[in-house]
Design a protein that fits this description.
By secondary structure, the protein is mainly β. The chain is built from no helices and 6 strands. 0% of the residues lie in helices and 57% in strands. The chain is globular, with a radius of gyration of 12 Å. The relative contact order is 0.38.
Amino acid sequence: MGGALVSNVEITAATVLRGDIIQVGGRACRVSDLFQLPQGAKQLLFESGELLTINGRTRLVAVRMTSRR
C-alpha cells in the first residue's frame, strides 16, 4: 500500500531538506532549493521565490512528507 506520511520535525541548517514546509509569517513555505553559506549557514529558496537565511543555531519546525514503504 503506497502513500505518504506527514510528520512535524525540528530542523536546523544541517538537517533541512528540499520539500520541507516551514511556517513563515503565518504562511506555509515549501523549500525548493538550498544554498550552503559560510559557518554552517544555509539560504533557503522557497517555491514563492522568497529567501530565508538560517545559521547553524537556528531551530525551526517543519512539516516533512516521507513515502510509506
